[in-house]
Each structure stands twice: as C-alpha cells, then as structure tokens.
C-alpha cells in the first residue's frame, strides 16, 4: 500500500481524510488572491464585413451583405447576442415597420473545417427575430415604446447556452477565418435603427 500526504505550500497544513473516507471542502466568498486573471469579458458590435459600419441599414437585395464578428489575435467564446430593431409603429408581423421581408436574414457561423454553417435562415419579421431569442426578454407582444427617440423597439437576447445548449457558446479561434454573423438579403434601409452586439469571454 502506498500512502501519500498532501501539504499546503504556504500554510503547511495537511489534507485530512475523515473517518468515513471523505474530505471536507469549504466554499470561500472570493477566488484565491494569488491567481492571475486570464479570462476577460468581450463585447463588440457586428460590423459590415467585420470592420465597417455597425448599422444594419443596408440594401442586401441585389448583393447579400454580411455583418459579423471576425477572429481576433486571441480565442473568443461568444455566448450572448443582443439585437435591437427600432422603427416608428413597428409591429410583430413586420420587420421594423417594413412589410415582412422577402428573403430575410440568415444567422450563420463560419470556420475552416465546416465552412459557412447557417444556423437559422429566412428571418423575415420582428417576430422571427424575437423567436430566435427564445422570446427573451419577455416583454409581451408589443415593442418597447419610444425606446429610440420616438421609435418603438424590439430587443432580443440570444443566449447560445440556453437556446442551443452550447455551454461555452461558439468559439472564434485566434488568428483564423472564424466568424459569427448575419447575412442581410433584402433592402432594410427604411427602418430607423438596427444593431446587433455580441458578448462573451476572451482567453
């Protein structure tokens, strides 16, 4: 039989095993003070071609236009996506206050091994966008009144762990072609405001 003794480096305390063969564990209210913070928050707006404008007010009817978060010099895990669509007198069945789109938007993820993977296609109305967010936040069937100036707004929070079961979200590998975004396939220049912002962690 081999016996081992585990001793704390700084305290010199020995790890004790109880008479029932278990080890006591204590939950402390703060992380150890000597551990360096290596994981940092990440937040960024999706932009046209990854670097352009963050406003989705663009004509993608003739030439489809991609808005996305591109790979960085560090690994990123995207776990939350927040969209805002604001337009005067917007209703669920419209896109902003435009008649429901013909082709809509596609929600996609891209990496080298799988190429462009369309997660959800044909997002043509405010309802489609809110449904993608699993109806979060639950503000009912009406938009947020006068949220952007005098425009009504639909806001959705897409939690990738909740909606798709991805515990850590979708990874953008450092220095790669990875990206996550939306393709605009109609003319949506007629709405007042549309932006999409992502949140996650960088490692």
Tell me about this structure.
With 203 residues, this protein is mainly beta. It is built from two helices and eleven strands. The chain has helices at residues 126-132, 160-164; strands at residues 40-45, 47-48, 65-70, 76-87, 105-111, 115-123, 144-148, 151-159, 170-172, 179-184, 193-202. The strands form two sheets. Strands 1, 4, 7, 8, 9 and 11 form a six-stranded antiparallel β-sheet that branches. The chain has a five-stranded antiparallel β-sheet with strand order 2-3-10-5-6. A hairpin with a 3-residue loop joins strand 5 (105-111) and strand 6. The two termini are 42 Å apart.
CA radius of gyration: 23 Å
Low-confidence stretches: none
Measured distance between first and last alpha carbons: 42 Å
Q: What portion of residues is helical?
A: under 10%
Give me the count of strands.
11
β-sheet strand percentage:
35-45%
Q: Rough shape?
A: elongated
Mean pLDDT: 89
Q: Class by helix and strand content?
A: mainly beta
Structure annotation, total helices: 2
Spell the H/E element sequence: EEEEEEHEEHEEE
Largest sheet: 6 strands, antiparallel
Summarize it.
With 203 residues, the chain is mostly beta strands. The protein has helices spanning 126-132, 160-164; strands at residues 40-45, 47-48, 65-70, 76-87, 105-111, 115-123, 144-148, 151-159, 170-172, 179-184, 193-202.
Describe the structure using short key phrases.
203 residues; mainly beta; 2 helices; 11 strands
